[in-house]
Design brief:
globular; 154 residues; five-stranded antiparallel sheet; 36% strand; 2 helices; D-amino Acid Aminotransferase, Chain A, domain 1; alpha+beta
Amino acid sequence: LATGPMPGAQYVLKERRSSGGHGVSLCEGSVIPNDERFVVQERMFWSDDLRAMVVDGRVEHWLRRRPADGEWRTNIAQGSHYSSALDVSPQAEALALRAARACNLLWCGVDLLEVNGEWTVLEVNPGTTFHGVTREEGQAIVESVADAIERTLP
């Protein structure tokens, strides 16, 4: 995250309270808004990313997200394609779990990107969707969330 000048750089400007890729803009220029309503990220180039569906310190499911043709955002609302990801590295899993723990979230989606062989967190979504999961996978995740909530009750 940054504020201040980034001459000639491309960056992503996100509204803090947005979803589905709405309120997200690709910008270029030398001035970045210094406004708490927005998050600024360096523009990274990739073909797809991963979403870890984390429940109570465990990754319950992985999704590979590929943007629609001509689109750079990987949100289902922007026409992206989601599929289950089975070949996820231990480094990606460890990073997703650290991100969820840092945000103190019982249930979340952690979006990850591999750049030059290193994993980075794009964002953590406290209310993630079930797009891309089968009915059975979704039911298993919901059961895990319910069990986790039950364990937190006095």
